[in-house]
Write a structure and sequence with these properties.
It contains one helix and two strands, in the order E-E-H. The radius of gyration is 15 Å and the shape is elongated. The chain has a two-stranded antiparallel sheet with strand order 1-2. The N and C termini lie far apart (38 Å).
């Protein structure tokens, strides 16, 4: 439930790859990535890659 307007809403989860080539704004790289010196997104990390890396790190500890 959205506390601002009390309506039910489904959370939309966009594909982070859609952001490649766009100017960076906060929140556009939820799982990490890279931005060049001009502020353009050049690399994004997918949720699957992020989870795989985190699982690998947890297994080390």
């Amino acid at each position: 439930m959205n506390p601002r307007n009390n309506n039910l809403s489904m959370e939309y989860q966009a594909d982070p790859k859609e952001n490649i080539g766009k100017p960076y704004r906060r929140g556009m790289l939820p799982y990490g990535g890279a931005v060049n010196s001009r502020g353009i997104i050049t690399l994004v990390i997918s949720e699957e890659d992020y989870r795989r890396d985190m699982d690998r790190l947890k297994s080390i500890v």
